[in-house]
Design a protein that fits this description.
Distance between the termini: 55 Å
Number of domains: 1
Shape: globular
Largest sheet: none
Structural class: mainly alpha
Helix content: 55-70%
Strand content: under 5%
């Protein structure tokens, strides 16, 4: 069953929610969380199951490069290392934790969480603005890497 976020039918009511619509897709969220947990366990064991296709294809890091290692460093309690891998990795862990909790909540609590998150996102952009900043950071990092590559 898909829960529709509050106000979803009213276009133009505040900022664009990002997390609430994702969380409303319960099965997708559960599959996503399961996959990410599998990747985290493999990473903790020193096995890399994911290689960035952008980095492999172009040689330049994508906006998300370093997030897995950064999240793992955050889980170990090493925020300095986490931020070195990717400055948004601690925030990514908070978002992933929210998704994981939301995906296993009972239906009524799940529905209330989605409605609460939708209201907060529309009022504050609490997910939209960090996501946009992460993309700007990643594109800047790509541009710097490209510039350094062309300088030689």
């Amino acid at each position: 069953m898909t829960v529709r976020p509050t106000g979803a039918s009213k276009m133009g009511t505040g900022l664009l929610p990002i997390a609430a619509p994702i969380l409303s897709q319960r099965r997708f969220t559960q599959i996503l969380c399961g996959t990410l947990i599998l990747l985290a366990i493999a990473s903790a064991l020193g096995v890399s199951l994911w290689h960035c296709p952008v980095l492999i294809t172009t040689g330049f890091p994508c906006p998300g490069c370093g997030l897995t290692r950064g999240v793992m460093a955050t889980l170990k309690g090493d925020l300095a290392e986490a931020v070195e891998y990717h400055p948004f990795s601690p925030l990514a862990l908070v978002f992933l934790t929210l998704l994981a909790i939301g995906s296993i909540l009972p239906r009524q609590a799940h529905s209330r969480l989605i409605q609460w998150l939708d209201r907060i996102e529309r009022r504050t952009g609490i997910v939209l603005f960090p996501l946009a900043a992460c993309v700007v950071y990643g594109l800047t990092r790509m541009a710097i890497a490209c510039y350094n590559h062309l300088s030689f």
